[in-house]
Design goal:
8 strands, alpha/beta, N-acetylmuramoyl-L-alanine amidase, Aminopeptidase, globular, six-stranded mixed β-sheet, MurNAc-LAA_cat, N-acetylmuramoyl_amidase_3, two-stranded antiparallel sheet, hydrolase, binds zinc ion
């Protein structure tokens, strides 16, 4: 079956990319992200392809030919930025709309990386052609270039090194929303509880415990788990923080997702 989406891990082989930090190289991190997204699309039964699945060199002509000939309608090209900045950037073609880039930026923002800009860029001598070859040479495929953050910004670099899976997942959510395909969050194992008690439904009596701080009663944990099941809360860090207040932006994201869900 022809893929709907093709995932492009930027750079590779002799080309490490420019977005390198002490913790990762751009070519390795974009491959991590791309392979993760490929697996997730398989789980969601969304036909997907990759431009590369290992550390190989791809010339730009070969890369764009793979995309053009893939039969896919969309291409997600993964990159890590550098050069003094902070946050995500999404670059799209002058021949497509900003709708998908906006959703990507929103979902990445929900994971804690602010958006720096969403933009198109044309060749200096030809305003009818895209500047970046992934936008210019991929034919009718709708290609977005995603820069997940700046490798030379310590906050971005730490976030990418630690949470790249959440960032990769954010793009899956954005894609499903944009392409109008059913999204389901990844299968997660129940949190490992010391006493093994809190994954047991029905044992909660609905009465808030006044006991020890880390011993979260079932009714609290079940409510939190429900948020994840529904895709309303996605950053796994929150799963074990029952008594930690969410920042306002995160509450806003949850309400917005709930609203979108009810509306559709
Ligand atoms: Zn790059």
């Amino acid at each position: 079956m022809a893929p709907i989406v093709i995932i492009d891990a930027g750079h590779g082989g002799v080309d490490p990319g420019g977005g390198n930090s002490a913790q990762f190289t751009e070519k390795a991190m974009t491959l991590n992200i791309s392979l993760y997204q490929y697996r997730r699309f398989q789980e969601l039964q969304i036909p997907a392809a990759l431009t590369r699945s290992s550390d190989v060199t791809l010339q730009s002509e070969d890369r764009t030919a793979v995309v053009r000939n893939s039969g896919a309608r969309y291409c997600i090209s993964n990159h890590i930025n550098s050069g003094g900045g902070r946050g995500t950037e999404v670059i799209y073609s002058i021949y497509s709309s900003a709708a998908f880039p906006r959703l990507i930026a929103e979902e990445l923002e929900a994971e804690g990386v602010p958006n720096r800009r969403i933009f198109t860029r044309t060749l200096p001598n030809n305003p009818k052609q895209d500047y970046y070859y992934m936008n210019r040479e991929t034919g009718s495929v709708e290609t977005v270039i995603i820069e997940y953050g700046f490798a030379d910004n310590p906050v971005d670099a730490d976030k990418i090194a630690k949470d790249w899976q959440s960032l990769a997942e954010a793009v899956i959510r954005a894609f499903c929303e944009y392409a109008n395909l059913t999204y389901r969050p990844p299968q997660t194992n129940p949190p490992a509880a010391g006493g093994g008690g809190n994954a047991n439904p029905g044992s909660g009596n609905g009465i808030p415990s006044t006991g020890g701080g880390s011993d979260v009663p079932d009714w609290k944990q079940e409510a939190i788990d429900w948020l994840f099941e529904q895709g309303l809360l996605t950053n796994e860090d929150w799963r074990n923080k029952a008594d930690t207040p969410l920042p306002l932006w995160a509450e806003a994201v949850i309400l917005k997702r709930l609203y979108e869900k009810l509306k559709s």
